[in-house]
Amino acid sequence: MSSTTRERLTPRQRLSRGLKYSTVGPVDVTRGAVGLGVESARSSASWAGDRYRRSKVARQLRTELAAAQQVVANLPEVVQNARKPRRRVRPLLLAGVGVAVLAGGAVTFSILRRSAQPDPSPLPPSVEVTPKP
């Protein structure tokens, strides 16, 4: 490293250097003690935040677990309700409705087809129908 580069000291290094040297001692001791206090406070705040997040997640998991237990407890009743016989629509009624729909579709198709054809013209053709050899 070059002589102009200064390494930043950690608070612990600064405190130990301040206690070691008497010339710059009081300044380094003060800066080291303040730095250690700040780092300690930051670490404590981080720990408290992690504990809060973990407790919040645990509370949410307990709530979800209670809801899941309630769903599982109600499962036999739900299965029993699902097994109840449902009233079935008579097959003949369904067949009749199907035939009626098909018949209606056929009638509609034939009406639309007839209306789409052009009316024959009352005028004689403009071109000779039988070609001459």
Automatic annotation (TrEMBL):
GO terms for cellular component: plasma membrane. It is a single-pass membrane protein. GO terms for biological process: cell division; cell wall biogenesis; regulation of cell shape. It holds the Pfam family CwsA. The keyword Zinc-finger does not apply. The keyword DNA damage does not apply. Keywords: Cell cycle, Cell division, Cell membrane, Cell shape, Membrane, Transmembrane, Transmembrane helix. It is found in: Cell membrane. Coiled coil: none annotated. The chain crosses the membrane at residues 92-112. Belongs to the CwsA family. Required for regulated cell division, cell wall synthesis and the maintenance of cell shape. HAMAP family: CwsA. This is Cell wall synthesis protein CwsA. The lineage of its organism: Bacteria, Bacillati, Actinomycetota, Actinomycetes, Mycobacteriales. The gene is cwsA.
